Amino acid sequence: MADEPVETINRNEIKNDNNTEMESEENRFYEALGFNLEDLYKLSYKFFKEKDGSKALHTTYKDKLKLVALTKQVSFGKFRSDAMPEVGFFDVVGNDRKQAWQSLGEMPQEKAMSEFVTMVQSLSPLFLPYVKAHLAEKEEVEQKKKEQEERAKAETLDQIRLEQAVKQQEEEKQKQYAQEMMIRAALNKQTEAQFQQYAEQQYPGNQAQQEALIIQLQEQHFVHYMQQVYQQQLLLQQQQQLQQNGGSVEQLPCGHNLSNNSASNIDAGGATRAVAAVNHASNAVELSLMNQTNISASEMADKLQSSDLSDGTLVKENGLPAFGNDVIDPNDLPPIAAASMWTRKDIKEFKDSLRNDPESVIKVGSGELVTVRVPTHDDGSCLFWEFATDSYDIGFGVYFEWTIANTNETSVQVHESSDEDDDEEDESGNVRGEGEGHEKPPASEPPTDEIIPAYRRDCHEEVYCGSHVYPGCGVYLLKFDNSYSLWRGKTVYYRVYYTR
Question: Which of 421, 389, 359 is nearest to 493 (CA)?
Answer without folding.
Answer: 389
